[in-house]
Write a structure and sequence with these properties.
- The protein has 12 helices and 9 strands.
- It is α+β, with helices and mostly antiparallel strands.
- β8 and β9 form a beta hairpin.
- Helices cover 46% and strands 14% of the residues.
Length: 398
């Protein structure tokens, strides 16, 4: 593939950049503490901010929320390379960009949903009026999603759900759950699971907050007590949900905040160029220079994988193996960026965000903690290595 952008793609990048700088709420950018690869320090999970919602609607008016979707379903008909450019610029500036609705739920519905489901749900997603949370993990089922025990029993035209989900990011500020549950307890785990949508307002749903290691309310535990969901909310066929879920997980693993890695690196580079220790700039220290050079190389490698994956999707090559590859690489990068930042900053880097002496608003101290979640979310690093070994290298399961 050609890694250089065409003139059309460069113009699109410039248009996106101008939109962000003109329209993004200044308070959002100033307060952005998001750490690339992490799941905890995401401020929009705390509240549903009206300015952010307005910004997202404007983004939708440009056709950018669903840019790579087919035009007949309200999409922009753009390439995945353009979508990758868009996501890279948005994450670089810390802007609230695409979400679970447009990057996971919508594409999965378009691929597996019935025409009736597409007509009901896709327009709401395109308009930016629907926010999803992922109802996957359970107390005893995380990386091994085949072990889920939440049940959805058929009752006429409905499913009746009983069980619990946990580590549910943003459930308290979302509209619907993108949910998997067991619908055939006698079948093998891979053959008795169904994927469906559940409205948060349905009676019997209780959402309780989990305050994460960064001090944010991003996670939740969610309980389902005889929750009735119409069968029309089922994605695809009953008991085929595990296979749809694997595709949805690949979509999730492609949600990479590449621009965020570059922005945090540039912050660290600027700090090293401006900060003196023992009478000389940190950037003049050979050890610091080596650490920064190593980070720069790792970021460039991640960028190449990122755009290669988008190119594959444009050429109808579904990047199943590559999705795990880039998830693993950026997970390692998230930890390495935080570790290197704290090593260079020294003890001041460990101060909390409200300290007057903390460098870079404490983003690296938060990131150091938040990067712990990077190795778990969307499948642990061990799971990604297993996928690469088995599907990519053809190694045996045992």
């Amino acid at each position: 593939m050609d890694f250089y952008l065409s003139e059309t793609e460069k113009k699109f990048r410039d248009d996106v950049e101008k939109f962000i700088l003109d329209e993004m709420p200044s308070s959002y950018a100033a307060n952005d503490l998001y750490w690339p690869g992490g799941y905890g320090a995401i401020s929009e999970f705390e509240v549903r901010d009206q300015q952010v919602e307005k910004f997202r609607r404007k983004m939708g008016e440009h056709g950018w929320s669903t840019m790579a979707w087919p035009k007949e379903y309200g999409g922009g008909g753009r390439s995945f390379i353009e979508q990758a450019i868009f996501c890279e610029r948005f994450s670089y500036h810390g802007a609230p960009g695409m979400d679970i609705s447009t990057l996971i739920a919508g594409p999965t519905i378009l691929r597996f949903g019935s025409e009736e489901m597409k007509r009901e749900w896709i327009p709401k997603i395109v308009e930016g009026n629907l926010k999803f949370w992922l109802a996957y993990s359970e107390p005893n089922a995380g990386s091994d999603l085949a072990a889920i025990q939440t049940r959805a029993v058929e009752d006429g035209d409905h499913l009746v759900i009983n069980g619990q989900k946990i580590w549910s990011s943003g459930a308290h500020v979302s509209d619907c759950g993108w949910m998997v549950a067991r619908t055939d307890m006698n079948a093998q785990p891979y053959r008795g699971t169904t994927l469906f949508i559940v409205d948060n307002k349905t009676p019997g749903i209780t959402i309780r907050p989990i305050i994460n290691i960064d001090g944010f309310h991003s996670f939740n535990e969610v309980f389902f007590d005889n929750v009735r969901v119409p069968k029309s909310n089922v994605v695809g066929e009953m008991n085929m949900g595990f296979y749809y879920l694997m595709v949805a997980l690949d979509f999730e693993r492609l949600i990479i905040s590449m621009g965020g890695f570059r922005r945090r690196f540039e912050d660290l580079l600027k700090y090293a160029r401006e900060t003196r220790r023992n009478g000389r700039l940190l950037s003049e220290d050979a050890r610091v220079r080596a650490k920064l050079a190593d980070l720069a190389i790792q970021i460039e490698i991640a960028y190449l994988l990122y755009y290669r994956t988008a190119w594959m999707m444009d050429n109808n090559l579904f990047p199943n193996i590559e999705a795990s590859e880039i998830k693993l690489v950026t997970t390692v990068l998230s930890r390495k960026l935080a570790d290197t930042g704290l090593e260079i900053m020294g003890p001041y880097g460990q101060l909390w965000t409200d300290s007057a002496r903390v460098p870079l608003r404490g983003r690296f101290s938060l990131g150091y903690l938040d990067s712990l979640s990077a190795v778990i979310g969307a499948g642990t690093s061990e799971i990604q290595r297993n996928i690469l070994a088995q599907r990519g290298l053809g190694l045996p399961r045992k």
